[in-house]
Amino acid sequence: MNRRMRLAAAVWWCALWCAPTARAVDWAAFRPQGYVSDFAGVVDAGGKRQLDAYCAAVEQATGAQIALVTIASLQREPIEDVTHAIFRAWNLDQKPQKNAVIWLVAVENRRDWMEAGPGLATILTSGEMAAILRQARPALARQQYALALMAAADEMGSRIAAAQRKTIAVRLPRRERRSLAESIPWLLAAGALLLFFWLFRVLGPPARHIRPAGGGFGGGETGGW
Fold first, then answer.
1. Residue 217 in domain
2. Cβ-based burial of 167 (10 A; exposed 0-12, middle 13-18, buried ≥19)
3. Which residue of 35, 128, 157, 184 lies most exposed, with the fewest beta carbons within 10 A?
4. Which of helix, strand or coil describes residue 114?
């Protein structure tokens, strides 16, 4: 009896250990929901309509297709693999001009990835993609997903249309400016600089035996959101 119990326990633990592999997501089974496939359910209906209309206008003017995708979780898979799996499953790599681009946002993992077909390689270079994502990530950090998708779509559409010297008939709403909170570091730096010059004029130059501290300030790009 004890031998049977030990064997049953071993089988149970083996099944429990293998369960995550068995539950792996079949990304190829996902089906597009228009230009915006909001599987995470984070984009409002109005924002989705505006994005669909804009992406349709981009495709009509340039022939390029923009796919915007949100998912809840990557299920412990690399985001570039998930993006590529969806890109291929939706035949975005089979378009005649191979000029489709996909942007995937994994909400719970706070990760995103962009992939473009060979037809857009000279327009959406790695440097251009990085610039596009920098425009979208502040809204992602605030969990304003519709605005983030609009920022990315607008940047992609504008670059593609400019390269082809085409005009897009539909425009997205003007994106929000930086909030005051985001501007505070620059305001503090500017205020400190003004205070330094004011003190310099009032008190005069520092004594010779005092060496002013060196340093400065500048901007930097963060790697996540």
1. no
2. exposed
3. 184
4. strand
